[in-house]
Amino acid sequence: MSGPSDSRRPVSSGSGTSPPPRRGGGTVDPPRERAVVAPPRRSTVVEPAAPDAARTGGRRRSPTKSAGAPAATRAARRRAPWWLRIVAWVVAVPVGLAIVGIPARTLGYLDSQKLLDVLIGKDTGRYLPLAVIVVLWALVTALLVQGIVEGGSWLLRRRRERRAGAAA
């Protein structure tokens, strides 16, 4: 029978890892010793709560991101409220179409005949006027959204500062 000296049995190191692969002849390589490497130590810095913690809802910012930045720059990096971003898109899409479509129509770049050609034409050049309009519409809409979000954030921040100044 097979005993402890049988070379065909897998050798277990007790570490829960799989046994080393067998090589030709049924012999098993001896287990390799592994160097134990300690993970690097991280120092933890505890800082007092920021004086503007009440305004930020108790959230703290990472000291590495905003430690050297002035307070006005840190405040400018806050995200706009979700409702302002939704309003910006709802307003900017139709306004952007009007800003691009009305001049294109009055200048004759986009008329009913060209729109009809898009539907019933046979060549690929029929899509060019429509593609130009769509690209310009996207660009104008993106600029409008950016302006609305940035301007709205600025107005909200200014209003908040006025209320804080009036309350103090």
Q: Overall mean pLDDT score? A: 76
Question: Helix- and strand-based class?
Answer: mainly alpha
List unreliable stretches of 5+ residues: none
Number of helices: 5
How much of the polypeptide forms β-strand, as a percent range?
under 5%
**Which value, in Å, is the CA radius of gyration?**
34 Å
Order of helices and strands: HHHHH
Straight-line distance between termini: 91 Å
How many E-type strands? 0
Please summarize the sheet with the most strands: none
Shape estimate: flat
Walk me through this protein's architecture.
By secondary structure, this protein is mostly helical. It has a domain of 89 residues. The chain contains five helices and no strands. Helix 3 packs antiparallel against helix 5. The model has no long low-confidence stretch (mean pLDDT 76).
What is the compact description of this entry?
The protein contains five helices and no strands.
Topology, element by element:
Blueprint: H1 63-66, H2 71-76, H3 82-106, H4 112-120, H5 128-167
Helix pairs in contact: 3-5
What would the keywords be for this entry?
168 residues; 0% strand; flat
